[in-house]
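Sample 1 of the test manifest.
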Amino acid sequence: MAAEGRKEYNVAVKERLRVWRQIPETEKYQEMEKNQDQILNEVTSGEYKYGFYSDIEIEKIPKGLNENTVRIISEKKGEPGWLLEFRLKAFRHWQTMKMPTWANLTIPEIDYQDIVYYAAPKQSKPAGSNDEIDPELKRTFDRLGIPLEEQNHLAGIVVDAVMDSVSVKTTFRETLAEAGIIFCSFSDAVKDYPDLVRKHMGTVVPYSDNFFAALNSAVFSDGSFCYIPKGVRCPMELSTYFRINAANTGQFERTLIIADEDSYVSYLEGCTAPRRDENQLHAAIVEIITEKNAEVKYSTVQNWYPGDREGRGGIFNFVTKRGLCRGENSKISWTQVETGSAITWKYPSCILRGDNSSGEFYSVAVTNNHQQADTGTKMIHIGKNTRSIIVSKGISAGFSQNSYRGLVKVHRKASGARNFSQCDSLLLGDKCGAHTFPYLEVDNLSAIVEHEATTSKIGEDQIFYCNQRGISTEDAIGLIVNGYAKEIINKLPMEFAVEAQKLLQISLEGSVG
Amino acid sequence: MLNINNLKAAINGKPILKGINLVLNAGEVHALMGPNGSGKSTLAAILAGREFAKVLEGTVSYMGKDLLEMPPEERSREGIFLGFQYPTEIPGVSMVNFMKTAVNEHRKHRGLEPLSASDFLRIMREKKELVEIDSKLASRSVNEGYSGGEKKKNEIFQMAMLEPRLAILDETDSGLDIDALRIVANGINKLRQPDRAVLVITHYQRLLDYIIPDVVHVLYDGRIVKSGDRDLALELEEKGYDWIKKEADKSKVYE
């Protein structure tokens, strides 16, 4: 792509950012409130609104996991030998491992032989092609609010849509390619950019990292791959939408994002699944690498099916997300809004290797009914003058348990390291739990590490004050919770922020009274 | 508009209101005075629907409806406004968001469309002038970090926004300096209307220098022991509550 075009893109991005920053806080709010009535309707009418199942013809392999399963998956994807070797090594390592038990979670026994490890919607045409995709698939994503036709899509957002084990469509691939940006499904990347994948895959999260990382490395099916070349600021939000559809199937996706020197990308991830009485397993890996002066902003709105009010069903969400700030002055920022899943085990982390690099973690985790979440981050300071910020807001309701677990580690060579952590918990009702497990390991005396934590309850007097102004208790809680989480929600791109606000309200529906 | 008949209420089993009778008509301003612990705030709380006090006996009818049957948000939407003695802080919820939600709930109740953002902001600007409130207030969280005076001004501002039929102002003058008192009182005066009734609860007559009440009631030991015109307030200022207490206690002996 010509330098000129690239410049144009950069100008476009700057303009978008400039405009967004100029909007006063109050107006950002008005923008978000536009759909208020709609939100209220959804709150009153809806529990989990993505719980539908699409009757799509699927191709499944038999249940169970052994070396042959791994080979079949690799073969289905037409993978090169080195990747099959990687998978097999991971599988053999996994067999020697045990499920971790240190988290503050009560996890029912998972029978790994009772899971289907590969399920793909049958398509007449291969994914990623420009041709029409299966209308039923298209309808599914339409219902989820993710139109797959480029002309219908939200301005400025590129989508990779993944259902069960395969990517069904990546939009705007060509447009991005003009800027030298690669954004495609992981499977396509293995075929089209094998050197890039081979060079970086597993360098941030090695297959031996943990039980679920090893499992994922053995059986991962699809996911997204993104490469931003030197000096390019990606002009559009890149996003991957993950959908579990098939029953008794696990989803094991893998995402790899590489931001070369002086580049920037904002990446979004959304996830939903049908309502079912059985639990389903989701074990993903996300790896991010930023080179000198590069920045990656990674936002997640996690809304897997959380199970019903009695705690039946729901997704078990065991995810390893980690970013490596390899170059100096590089930056990785994680923002997550976690409302779904029966069990969440997830610690998006930053390894701050480059000097002056910085890591951020902003999180809102909501648990209601019988949900359990053990989530947080790790900030590993290795380079000099590295900085990290952690802001975690937990909201617990019903009978749920919500834990923050975070590690701040300052290496002995990391002089001038700086960390600030803030962990707040909000309790609704008296049957739920909020827990904080901060770990600090500081081996350099020049480091400044701060930790603040608060626990609060929504006060009866606050609710009455709202009531007296004509606001119902349910809406009052929505207002207060959204206010509490505002600091995090504001970090999300606008389109997602609106969605996230609605989600917070819906997730806490019925938590009062 | 408001008709309180033999209202008796208790907190934790302890009788606080011992038979209140009060009639408030549209267009009237009544002042409710009385020493500490006489039950003024309890009465305000019961009218607004706060549940800490238990109603034992009596009725309250508002616009011909049984007020005690309505949930608090319904009372608000039907036009009852309580100016809080200690306004609650709600961190993270901006005043503009809070007020917009409240105003639109009221509109919905009346079958009206929600206000557009620009209309809402325009009305908000107008009403803010009424109580000379800082225009930065809109983007701040509800009552969070406000000074005592700002909190009370903010109550009157909300009253102006919600345009109630019946406003109950619970010690709106407490904690105000002279300037703030004048501003708040002027704000209330501007909101006096033929179709609106106001019940002003206060310890001191000084607020009534600005807001001239039609009727003054003295509450003592859970009963209204004396009612009169504005001069009653002046008399109280001069003599204190003791003579009223004595009078009331004497009559109790004869009961």
